[in-house]
């Protein structure tokens, strides 16, 4: 009920540290899931162990930097990109990408992962030969459009001053 906490740096920093610690903790679980999916459960455990005791990760979480968010979003994008391809997965990937962009614009590079998954996972030679446009090209174009539109929309919702005050954004 007391709005003064919005103006006190010490209280805002504590909130940032809590968010950073939460995202870092979830990232440990996400790196386990991603490594387990791509490699094996043993590799997942090793990856989770290494991330949980990484001095860099601990330091970034302590200082509440955007890097902890970026690691979280990157791992979530990796894990979701390897899921079965359905329309809601592309929209969810777009939303996660948009949030990552709102956190730090350099995360635009993360877009390569879902776009590569859309275009290169589940390639079937027979489908490519017989019904290229109907079964390959159009579904992937729709998925790409859904991903990009959702990412752009989410980015603009969570970072509106990108458009409102474009000059400061471009500095």
Can you describe this structure?
The protein has 171 residues and is mainly alpha-helical. It has ten helices and no strands. It has helices at residues 9-38, 41-52, 55-63, 66-81, 87-103, 112-120, 125-130, 132-158, 161-164, 166-170.
What brief labels describe this structure?
single chain; 10 helices
Look at the structure and give the mean pLDDT.
85
- Could you tell me the number of beta strands? 0
Strand content: under 5%
Poorly predicted runs are none
> SSE order in H/E notation?
HHHHHHHHHH
Overall radius of gyration = 19 Å
- Bin the helical content: over 70%
Blueprint (SSEs and pairs):
Blueprint: H1 9-38, H2 41-52, H3 55-63, H4 66-81, H5 87-103, H6 112-120, H7 125-130, H8 132-158, H9 161-164, H10 166-170
Helix pairs in contact: 1-2, 1-3, 1-4, 4-5, 4-6, 5-8, 6-8
Compact overview of the structure:
The chain is built from 10 helices and no strands. With 171 residues, the chain is mostly helical.
